[in-house]
Specification:
311 residues; alpha/beta; Rossmann fold; L-2-Hydroxyisocaproate Dehydrogenase, Chain A, domain 2; 2 domains; 6-stranded parallel sheet; 43% helix; globular
């Protein structure tokens, strides 16, 4: 029997996530949304594409969370979209209510699922999903670092004129302007990136990575990124569904790692059948440690605003 994944939210990110999951034949997919007709229509459209693509995974759209019962993974994409000039902080309370409502309904029908949070502000919404679900920390993780790292790798591959597959990189910290791309741990086929790109150009790429989401929002003007975020969520889901044990940068609840306690922050994580199976602590220098602490402090500010609502 195929695995089952629920994607909450039939907007651009959710629908694209559902399509990627189906195209890879990773699982059957349930696309759920509160707007009547939208998930049903998109689900039917994808199902009708399956014979052309040779895909046998089943995909349906629904407004009823009962249809999501016994899901192995719940991917939370639903949320108020970020608009030009809007910071992730502006999204906080709007998306708190959305994530709280969606997760509480989903876990009622899938109490053994693993939750992947995609809604922004990402790190803060992980705290909401963790509190509302009551799940152990290994079953609530956030998609941020995979996306941020992909952007970093994309820009580096372009600068070096090499395959993206040869670029190894990690982006830690919160999902936002304070994220921490680790150039010291970045290489092209084992060659340190500092030997291939001048320091000033590398710093410009780091800055562009930090502003990657805002750059796309500014270009689209009426929306935000969805192809890469969906691909990132699916890479995480695939590692869990196939027990691949990939080491990916994800938002995880830290309990002393990196000197941070009780906070969701992006760190290297091993993802397998049990969800988050291991957090890898890197040896950071003083500058990197300070940058990670600064990023964690930014996340803490948002969580402090939410705390009265999470108790």
């Amino acid at each position: 029997m195929r695995k089952k994944v629920t994607v909450i939210g039939a907007g651009n990110v959710g629908a694209t996530t559902a399509l990627y999951l189906s195209d890879k034949e990773l699982c059957d997919v349930v696309l759920v949304d509160i707007v009547e007709g939208v998930p049903q229509g998109k689900g039917l459209d994808m199902a009708e594409a399956a014979p052309i693509e040779g895909v046998d995974a089943r995909i349906i759209g629904t407004n009823d969370y009962a249809d999501t019962a016994n899901s192995d993974i719940i991917i939370q994409t639903a949320g108020f979209p970020r608009k030009p000039g809007m910071s992730r902080d502006d999204l906080l309370m709007k998306n708190y209510e959305i994530v709280k409502s969606c997760i509480s309904q989903a876990v009622k029908y899938s109490p053994n699922a693993i939750i992947i949070v995609v809604a922004n502000p990402l790190d803060a919404m992980c705290h909401v999903a963790h509190a509302v679900s009551g799940f152990a920390k290994n079953r609530v993780i956030g998609m941020a670092g995979v996306l941020d790292t992909a952007r970093f790798r994309c820009f580096l591959a372009e600068a070096c004129d090499v395959s993206v597959e040869n670029v190894v990189a990690f982006v830690l910290g919160g999902h936002g302007d304070t994220m921490v791309p680790l150039t010291r741990y970045t290489s092209v086929a084992g060659i340190p990136i500092e030997k291939l790109i001048p320091a000033d150009e590398l710093e410009a790429i780091v800055d562009r990575t930090r502003k990657g989401g805002a750059e796309i929002v500014g270009l689209l003007k009426t929306g935000s990124a969805f192809y890469a975020p969906a691909a990132a969520a699916v890479e995480m889901a695939e590692s869990i569904l196939k027990d691949k044990k990939k080491v990916l940068p994800c938002a995880a609840l830290l309990e002393g790692e990196f000197g941070i306690d009780g906070l969701y922050v992006g760190v290297p994580c091993k993802l397998g059948a049990n969800g988050l199976e291991k957090i890898y602590e890197l040896d950071l220098n003083d500058e990197e440690s300070a940058a990670l602490k600064h990023s964690a402090d930014a996340v803490q500010e948002l969580v402090d605003v939410l705390k009265p609502h999470l108790s």
